[in-house]
Specification:
heterodimer, A: alpha/beta, Rossmann fold, six-stranded mixed β-sheet, four-stranded antiparallel β-sheet, 10 helices, 10 strands, B: mainly alpha, two-stranded antiparallel ribbon, 11 helices
Amino acid sequence: MSSMLKVEDLHVYYGSIHAIKGISFEVNAGEIVTLIGANGAGKSTTLNTVAGLMKPRTGTVLFEDKPLIGVPAHKIVSHGMALCPEGRRVFLQMTVQENLEMGGFTRPAAEIQQSIESVYTRFPRLKERYKQTAGTLSGGEQQMLAMGRALMSRPKLLMLDEPSMGLAPILVEQIFDIIKELHKTGTTILLVEQNAQAALSIADRAYVLETGKISMSGSAKELLHDERVQKAYLGG
Amino acid sequence: MMNLLLNLINGISLGSVYAIIALGYTMVYGIAKMLNFAHGDVIMVGAYICYCSMSYLNLPPVVGVILAVIVCTVLGIVIERLAYKPLRSAPSLAVLITAIGVSYFLQNAALLTWKSDPKVFTSVVNLPSLSLFDGRLTISAVTIVTVLANIVIMIALTTFTGKTKMGKSMRAVSEDNGAAQLMGIDVNRTISMTFAIGSGLAAIAGVLLCSAYPTLMPTTGSMPGIKAFTAAVLGGIGSIPGAMLGGILLGVIEIFAKAYISTQLSDAIVFAVLIIVLLIRPTGLLGKQIREKV
């Protein structure tokens, strides 16, 4: 298996705060990889840095062997990588359809309609509400919209930041089913979650992030049964 | 009765000028999250460009207007690039002070170029006045053209932001520029585009303003600029329909205050209205109430 995303010795600062202290990880094509960890461990910072929204002090990010550090955020999506950000961040005052159009911003106009249709096939709820502004959707629907919007760029690697945040358990299950489906249809997934149980149960491999460092890594199955992980993140 | 009607029409016309200027303030605020206090002075530059092309180069008024729009559009892009872009991640106070600096720079550059003596601006509208009700109501052509221009601009902008890809991406940036970047939208380019549109509109406003009130000086833009800013805040800054509503309301209030209360106090009344509205509705008349779902 070739590595699709390779992050090496990444250091990120917020002002003088050393948020990410030299982490390295990789995501191979076809995998679901999850980063788990407590609040403030640096999971979102890591994803935001990979997506170009934050600049690291040092370190390398390679996507399909192309270096991404220094590439402005708006140019990263066309490399085939999309981030569905923490807190969904859909455009609340724009309609569902317009949100999806924005997701396809870098795609040729002729292909957009077809991609929107395929998002609607995957999320029929969005189709019912295509004219509504995103602000009127429920939390679960907004999450679906955020995912649909990220899929509009046809990413090879989809990064999901806390997709289950603030959702009712039944919706969490639904969202994780969708992630599994996306994976089956060939999308590589990098998943950041606080819901370690759910994340580990669908992932191939996992990294545990603790105050800016990777403290454990391995196959998701191993970590799911690891005593330390169970104690710290699975309420065991 | 006829007087009331005439004052109302004049108010709407003056308000249309404020509205066109306010659009520039509100769009720039919505997208770059900054108050461009130099916006009023771009109006003045536009008026001077039009004046020079008509009086010195003897070009027809239409060409003068087009030149003014082109020069101001470029000026807006250059101001943003040189003065504001380097401060993209600076505290907003630094940007605000810079904007005031740019405003003084433009005024003084105009003073050097065109001197301090007021120029008499020839109206760009050479049409006869409209006479209604057996001549009891006369409306000047500039008044009508100004209102029409405002309507056309409003429709054009609404279509642009609602239907075109560029316009939609501007709305996306104004709502969440981080998320917009994740979509692949170039925020710097969008901000530049916004300055271009706002400044081009400022040129039109400047020409219309000076056609109705023909004294042109380097400080001509500052008071209308401040009033248009007031209009934008009154309507709800960041909102395009808000800028329209705020501008027209402000124009009508100003003319009515001048006609029925006191000419000297009219500005005080205008700003008093702003204060009262903001006390009752801090986000302005059509301002967005921030609602978020968790």
